[in-house]
Amino acid sequence: MRTLIVEDDSISRRVLESSLSPYGECQIAVNGKQAIEAFSAARKEGQRFDLICMDIMMPEMDGQEALKHIRSLEENAGVLPSDATKVIMTTALADFEDVITAIEGDCNGYLLKPIKKEKLLAELKSLQLIS
Fold first, then answer.
1. Going by C-beta distance under 8 Å and a sequence separation of 6 or more, which residues neighbour residue 14?
2. Whole-angstrom Cα distance, residue 119 to residue 115?
3. Which of 41, 61, 125 is nearest to 88 (CA)?
4. What does the pLDDT look like over 76-85, one tens digit per residue?
5. How far apart are CA 91 and CA 95, in angstroms?
6. How many domains does the structure of the chain reveal?
7. Contact yes or no for 42/20 (Cβ under 8 A)
């Protein structure tokens, strides 16, 4: 499983990376702009990410905006929604509006920080990324 971890907080990055690295390669981006660059670069190299874990609130470009760009890139490339990269949004905010916006942006899951490994792995199983 190839994962892109998009997180500006170093502790959250480490937690996600330590939980996800046993399942495959993890790449790091610290904001939405870097996430789009990493996503685009992977596609140009004929690769893809199976999973993106993306924080909502980040500098330069937030996760909601980055998700819109990523979904647009997939749509323009002819990727069917069923084959799209799975995206789990993460946030410290338990704001109902953030949840609705993330779902409308076609995220596949939503986790509140601090991220608990058990909840993350349960989400991966529900997305059929791990067994």
1. none
2. 7
3. 125
4. 999 998 899 9
5. 9
6. 1
7. no
